[in-house]
């Protein structure tokens, strides 16, 4: 979907001619390119469970529908939606339609826009120019699009995620070889698995990031300190 080479910055007030033609083109040739973050997976788990699927835990959602992609040599990984042959289409695409429309990941909701946090709760807005046939027949404004498709819960999640990422990377880099497997297991557990689907998400995520940082510090004897809410001031 979003390819860095095809993203161009736009101002929040800029109006863009964009109309979804429901052609499904944005959902093909996506290998390792649509992130499924923890909040996305939490919502997807609840959506599938409400539809009658047997979903008991978050890690089963990641295992079934996504694959880990290392972002960094430290082992810090994100999950991307799985794709299927022959055209590397998203596994949720059927007959050119999204089968999880109410619970699709934030990257899909935001498309054709994307956001990059600048700090201070502000964002750089980016426009994906990858599928130029969409840019006709209907004006959307970047700021308004974000307001409608990127609710407060997503923004708070992004804040905690970005606020903890750099410290997690630094700590993972300091882990001695002998303890690396244990550290990666802790990373995966707290970031992508240890969630109760019947409790509010954000508080659990904050607590998990705090626990993860504390556990990694204990292994490394590190001295990088975060705030109580699991954020720091370093940015990422
Ligand atoms: S989740 Fe839905 S909108 Fe997103 S890439 Fe897959 S099919 Fe397309």
Backbone shape: globular
Count of beta strands: 11
Query: How many separate structural domains?
Result: 2
Overall pLDDT metric? 87
The helix/strand class is alpha+beta
Helical residues, percent: 25-40%
Number of helices: 7
> Which ranges are low-confidence, i.e. pLDDT below 50, for 5 or more consecutive residues?
223-236
What do these coordinates show?
- The structure is a single chain.
- With 236 residues, the chain is of the alpha+beta class.
- It has two domains: 9-149, no CATH class; 153-220.
- Helices cover 38% and strands 18% of the residues.
- The chain has seven helices and eleven strands.
- It has helices spanning 38-50, 58-65, 106-110, 142-149, 152-174, 180-192, 201-220; strands spanning 7-10, 15-17, 66-70, 77-81, 83-84, 89-90, 93-94, 97-98, 113-119, 122-128, 139-141.
- The strands form five sheets. A three-stranded antiparallel sheet has the order 1-10-9. Strands 2-11 form a two-stranded antiparallel sheet.
- Helix 5 runs parallel beside helix 7 and helix 6 packs antiparallel against helix 7 (201-220).
- It starts with 6 loop residues before the first strand and ends in a 16-residue tail after the last helix.
- The model is unreliable at 223-236 (pLDDT under 50).
- Iron/sulfur cluster is lined by residues 27, 34, 81, 90, 92-93, 98, 100, 104-105, 108.
């Amino acid at each position: 979907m979003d390819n860095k080479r095809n993203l161009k910055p736009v101002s929040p007030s800029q109006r863009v001619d964009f109309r979804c033609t429901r052609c499904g083109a944005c959902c093909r040739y996506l290998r390792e390119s649509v992130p499924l973050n923890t909040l996305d997976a939490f919502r997807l788990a609840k959506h599938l469970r409400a539809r009658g699927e047997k979903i008991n835990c978050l890690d089963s959602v990641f295992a079934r529908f996504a694959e880990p992609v290392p972002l960094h040599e430290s082992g810090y990984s994100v999950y991307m939606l799985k794709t299927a042959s022959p055209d590397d289409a998203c596994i949720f695409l059927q007959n050119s339609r999204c089968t999880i429309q109410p619970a699709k990941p934030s990257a899909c909701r935001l498309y054709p826009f994307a956001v990059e946090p600048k700090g201070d709760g502000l964002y750089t807005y980016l426009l994906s120019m990858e599928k130029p046939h969409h840019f006709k027949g209907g004006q959307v404004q970047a700021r308004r699009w974000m307001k409608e498709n990127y609710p407060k819960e997503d923004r708070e999640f992004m804040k905690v995620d970005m606020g903890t990422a750099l410290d997690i990377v630094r700590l993972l880099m300091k882990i001695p070889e002998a303890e690396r497997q244990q550290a990666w297991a802790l990373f995966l557990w707290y970031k992508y698995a240890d969630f109760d689907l019947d409790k509010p998400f954000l508080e659990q995520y904050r607590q998990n990031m705090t626990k993860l940082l504390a556990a990694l510090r204990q292994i490394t004897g590190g001295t990088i300190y975060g705030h109580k809410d699991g954020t720091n001031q370093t940015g990422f």
